[in-house]
Amino acid sequence: MRRYIKLYGYERLVVKAVVVVVVVVVVVVVVVVVVVVVVAVVVVVVVAVVVIIVVKVLLVVVVGGEGGGGGGVAAVEVAVAVVEIVVKVVVVVW
């Protein structure tokens, strides 16, 4: 035969208070984690876009136009294209 613990009025209040505190803490932790992840993704995308813009401007300024120059410039253009693709994939997946 099972025996149940009999809780009196104040004990029930304590149990309810503990449950409420635990639920609130869990919700706050989940919200904080989600916010941190969203901010991290936004920061990464913004930094990548800024890097792309800076590299393209430098290519235009240093080389004197798109497509000019030697193999180093071509390698930088390929790297910029790869970063652009990665940023687009991250944005679409997110």
Radius of gyration (Å): 28 Å
Overall spatial form:
rod-shaped
The stretches of 5 or more residues where confidence is low (pLDDT under 50) are none
The total of helices stands at: 2
Largest sheet: none
* Percentage of residues in DSSP E strands: under 5%
Provide the structure class: mainly alpha
Q: Please count the beta strands (DSSP E, at least 2 residues each).
A: 0
**Helical coverage, percent range:** over 70%
Q: Could you tell me how far the N terminus lies from the C terminus, measured between alpha carbons in angstroms?
A: 54 Å
Task: Describe the overall structure.
Helix 1 (9-63) runs antiparallel to helix 2 (71-93). The protein has helices spanning 9-63, 71-93. The model has no long low-confidence stretch (mean pLDDT 79). The longest helix is centred in the middle third of the chain and has 55 residues, at 9-63. It has one domain (9-93). With 94 residues, the chain is an all-alpha fold. This is ABC transmembrane type-1 domain-containing protein. Keywords: Membrane, Transmembrane, Transmembrane helix. The chain crosses the membrane at residues 12-35, 41-62, 74-93.
Name the features.
transmembrane helix, 94 residues, ABC transmembrane type-1 domain-containing protein, mainly alpha, 2 helices
Q: What's the topology here?
A:
Elements: H1 9-63, H2 71-93
Helix pairs in contact: 1-2
